[in-house]
Amino acid sequence: MSSDLTALPTRCVGGVSFAVSEAARIAEAIRHDALDGETGIAVHFANAYTVALAHANSAVGKILHSPKALNITDGASVSWFGQRYNSGEGLRWEQTSGPELMERVLAESSADGPRHFLLGGSPETLDKLQAAIAQKWPNAVIVGAESPPYRALTDQELAEQDQRIRDSGANIVWVGLGTPKQDFEVDRLAHSIPIIACGVGAAFDFIAGTKRRSPQWMTSAGLEWVYRFAQEPRRLAGRYLWGNPAFVMAAVKHRDRPAFVQLATDRAGS
């Protein structure tokens, strides 16, 4: 069975292959493949930090290069670098965030599908998220929601969770566990169930209203990271102070390579 997602054109930044397309087309491809129900795909919304992690940790690099992986540009620096050095003729390299894509797909959903499962966040956030979805997109069908424990789940717990997702009849799993935990989980789900699994980061909090988004002008100017850093400096310090320079080094090193390249081994093991 054909897949609209895997048919999207791809280009490389920093050794990582990205799908290059506008948000509306990606959202429609997610909806189509979810309703098709034959393909397991792990959708990663990757930014500069994700690219940096892929070079520092071979496990992250491996899942981003998996045949079931689709990497979407969720970062102004990735978008800028890709457009400048590796967009190719006729391609416009847009930044598309997890929250934006989740909202688009929910808005385009109907009683006929796709059916959505929410995985991640606190029980309180999930309650607010489901209430917000019901109010904003009443035609979107939410068939399940779970707040997993912070600890790693056992194999049995994972198997039981996967069975609950299957039994719910979900076509899409939205995963909000934070980077890189959610990237490992969507990869696992795409192989295990299989299903369309999207790691959407702070989308749960943004849609639920438990965290504020950056003003649109800051997002458009590529300054969303400044806004988020100001809100949560302690949590995000490592991401930006280490991740941004590491991304620039990787992007410059691989700027002339249009395809995926073998990423470095784990920093801790080198």
Describe the structure.
With 270 residues, the protein is an alpha/beta fold. It has one domain. The protein has 12 helices and 8 strands. Strands 4-3-8-7-5-6 form a 6-stranded parallel sheet, sandwiched between helices. The protein has a two-stranded antiparallel ribbon with strand order 1-2. α2 (48-56) packs across α3 (58-64), α2 crosses α12 (233-253) and α11 (224-231) runs antiparallel to α12.
Short description:
It contains twelve helices and eight strands. The chain is of the alpha/beta class and 270 residues long. The longest helix is centred in the C-terminal third of the chain and has 21 residues, at 233-253.
Name a few traits of the molecule.
single chain; 270 residues; alpha/beta; six-stranded parallel beta sheet; two-stranded antiparallel sheet; disordered C terminus
